[in-house]
Amino acid sequence: MRPKAMWIAVAWGVALLCLVAGIALFAGGVVGTAGAVTLQKTFAAGESATVTIDPADQPVLYLASSSQVHYTCRISGGPGPARLARTNTSGSLTLGATRWQLILVINAPAKGDYQVTCATQEQANARFGVGRDPASAAGGLLGGVAALILIPGAGILAAIIVTVVIVVRRNSHRKRLAAGG
């Protein structure tokens, strides 16, 4: 009897592998996103921090303060002149019990070690942090969700098609044999 029924089991085995791959890629996207929305370095107002900045990571500067403060920040060092720019978007990040407010975008020309210094006019307990923009980090999560849906979906669809084709062809072959014998 052709084609062999074993191909149905093979097709569903491949669908199962696609499901496992989709789940693994989704988990990788979640872990990557969770790691991307942490702060690389934190420092108090008046302190200077040396931070490795990569423009590909879309680095930003955050502020955590219990009261409103007026701040000034500057960046120096690195392989080229970097600058700080006000952001057009408002974003925040909550890590533990601390809420970090996105305040500045770091425009660095190349990857390197930069010194970031921030100060406040008030005597507030303000802290600053360098990290990634949460919106840029969300791409890994969206890719993981797409992998979770598309890869298993393609595997299951292929298995369904193979199953239908094999069942129809085997049934047709069986009818030909019954008519000829």
Structure commentary:
With 181 residues, the protein is an alpha+beta fold. Helix content is 43%, strand content 32%. Helix 1 (6-36) runs antiparallel to helix 2 (134-180). The chain is rod-shaped. The relative contact order is 0.25.
Secondary structure: elements and pairs:
Layout: H1 6-36, E1 39-44, E2 48-53, E3 59-64, E4 71-77, E5 83-86, E6 92-95, E7 98-107, E8 112-120, E9 127-132, H2 134-180
Antiparallel strand pairs: 1-9, 2-8, 3-7, 3-9, 4-8, 5-7, 6-7
Helix pairs in contact: 1-2
Unreliable spans are: none
What percentage of amino acids are in beta strands?
25-35%
Distance between the termini: 14 Å
Mean pLDDT: 87
How would you describe this structure in keywords?
181 residues; six-stranded antiparallel beta sheet; single chain; 9 strands; alpha+beta; three-stranded antiparallel beta sheet
Outline:
43% of the residues lie in helices and 32% in strands. It has helices at residues 6-36, 134-180; strands at residues 39-44, 48-53, 59-64, 71-77, 83-86, 92-95, 98-107, 112-120, 127-132.
